Amino acid sequence: MRAKLKDVYNVVQEVNVMDSQDSANLALLSRPELGVTFTKLHCWRLVQFEKCVFLDADTLILQNCDELFEREEFSAAPDVSWPDCFNSGVFVYKPSQATFDKIVEFAVKYGSFDGGDQGLLNQYFADWATSDIRKRLPFLYNVTAYASYCYLPAFKQFRDKIKILHFAGKMKPWLIHFNSQSRVASVPSDYSHANDLIQLWWNIFFDHVHGQLTTNMVGLAGALSQLRLGEQRTPEQEAYEHMMRRQCWESGQVDYMGRDSFENIWKRIQQTMDSKPQAPAAAAAEDEKKASTNLIILKNGDLVWQPHQTQAPSNAARQRKTTKQRISHRFK
């Protein structure tokens, strides 16, 4: 992966993870994973550059933003949920080892009011909102995609002027269920206003990134490399897409208006209740067939094959659990 990144970027620098380990304040956001965002402080150590623009990995640039380099440190856009604070997903800064050391020292002494990098940087650059209006970037440079954070009428009015879209929050484009056969993303209702922009993210991914992924890569990159567009899904793709859809459910991102609508769920329940239970002999034959079948499973994001072994239950136990097993099987 590092070699692939070097083909695209001028500098690929590996850094150590920095974690705030502030579980109490992170709990207020219900985002325990944000502690490691302290790692972005390493960006001040890129001293070979005079000025930089930091972008979170969940941002999508929609228009040229070169003019940001005309801004001074520390320039950022207001956070939509508390505009007197800035959002740390996009900011202009000057690399400096001295600044890095001071921020780390400040973090050790005072911590972060939200447990993540945004709280820390807002405390360190505390005069951002009042010292110089030129350091207050227009919101168009850091527009939040999530509907609950977004002023929808304004989003509709100014969407053609958006420079950078930020997928802030738990749901990221790569966690949204994507149908590889139809090349369409199943966008949750909370993101329906940005449906075309999420689709754009996936189009960019497959046009410019997917072809660079290889099956020997680990984790999500290796799993995504096996997707084939516009073709009938392979068992590996079915397993991956099932995993991603389940992950959406578990994170609370349910497609209530589409595939996961009440209508479709009720239809599946009716189909289950109307179907006839298998005869004991047929069920035993099915169990024997399953016992010799290989299943595709996911371990740590990697697709692997594993023999599926089952022990056939007694006829009495099978009869007692027939309905429950059928419903469970159809909803897995």
From TrEMBL:
**A GO term (biological process) for this protein?**
glycogen biosynthetic process
Give the location in the cell: Cytoplasm
Gene Ontology cellular-component terms for this entry are: cytoplasm
For this protein, the record's Pfam families field holds: Glyco_transf_8 (PF01501)
Q: Which reaction does it catalyse?
A: [1,4-alpha-D-glucosyl](n)-L-tyrosyl-[glycogenin] + UDP-alpha-D-glucose = [1,4-alpha-D-glucosyl](n+1)-L-tyrosyl-[glycogenin] + UDP + H(+); L-tyrosyl-[glycogenin] + UDP-alpha-D-glucose = alpha-D-glucosyl-L-tyrosyl-[glycogenin] + UDP + H(+)
Compositionally biased, Basic residues: which spans?
A: 318-332
Its Enzyme Commission number?
Answer: 2.4.1.186
- Report the principal subcellular site: cytoplasm
Keyword list (alphabetical) reads: Cytoplasm, Glycogen biosynthesis, Glycoprotein, Manganese, Metal-binding, Transferase
Q: Which InterPro entries would you find in this protein's record?
A: Glyco_trans_8, GNT1/Glycosyltrans_8, Nucleotide-diphossugar_trans
From start to end residue, where is composition biased (Polar residues)? 308-317
Keyword Cell wall biogenesis/degradation applies: no
Manganese keyword on record: yes
Signal peptide extent:
none
Q: Which cofactor does it need?
A: Mn(2+)
Tell me the GO molecular function terms: glycogenin glucosyltransferase activity; metal ion binding
Q: Where is this region: Disordered?
A: 308-332
What SUPFAM superfamilies has UniProt attached to this entry? Nucleotide-diphospho-sugar transferases
PANTHER family in alphabetical order: GLYCOGENIN SUBFAMILY MEMBER
The family this protein is said to belong to: Belongs to the glycosyltransferase 8 family. Glycogenin subfamily.
Explain the purpose of this protein: Self-glucosylating initiator of glycogen synthesis. It catalyzes the formation of a short alpha (1,4)-glucosyl chain covalently attached via a glucose 1-O-tyrosyl linkage to internal tyrosine residues and these chains act as primers for the elongation reaction catalyzed by glycogen synthase.
State the name under which the record lists this protein: glycogenin glucosyltransferase
The record's gene field reads 106088343
